[in-house]
Amino acid sequence: MTAQPATARFTLVISGAPYTSQAPQSALRFAEAVLSAGHAIERVFLYGDGVHLASSYAAPPSDEPDWPEMWAEFLQQHRIAATCCVASALRRGLLDHTEARRYQRPGVNVRSCYTVAGLGDWLEAEQAADRTLYFKDGGV
């Protein structure tokens, strides 16, 4: 009788912006491979310029991939928790309903599949995962 390999749990941290970095693309391909191999993703955490993936206002030209939309579909399809760093999001003008009310801004532009939260979510995800991978400008 052969023992089944243990399922690994990953946390992914993306700090590179779509369209100026390969980080979101590489992270998505890695995430797809992880799930295909039977492993799990604990959480995706967007940090720094990576928070641009959460923007509902991104509208790339029709001949370019829509990385924010592709990520949103992936997260929703696989029911994966995803967090935007609140400080990174606020600095870049990305607001959810809570932050829009707090700062008295008229609009919300963070996709609903993301939670805007602090680094505590990142730390919790790291503790729950077997491995954490960072996708940033210049690679993993």
Automatic annotation (TrEMBL):
Protein origin, superkingdom: Bacteria
Compartments, record wording: Cytoplasm
GO biological process, one term: tRNA wobble position uridine thiolation
The keyword ATP-binding belongs to this UniProt entry's keyword annotation: no
NCBIfam families: PRK00207.1 (NF001237), sulf_tusD_dsrE (TIGR03012)
Coiled coil: none
Keywords of this entry: Cytoplasm, Transferase
Matching Pfam families: DsrE
Gene Ontology molecular function: any one: sulfur carrier activity
Family under the similarity heading: Belongs to the DsrE/TusD family.
Presence of the UniProt keyword Cytoplasm in the record: yes
UniProt name for this protein: Sulfurtransferase complex subunit TusD
InterPro entries in the cross-refs: DsrEFH-like, Sulphur_relay_DsrE/F-like, Sulphur_relay_TusD/DsrE
GO cellular component: sulfurtransferase complex
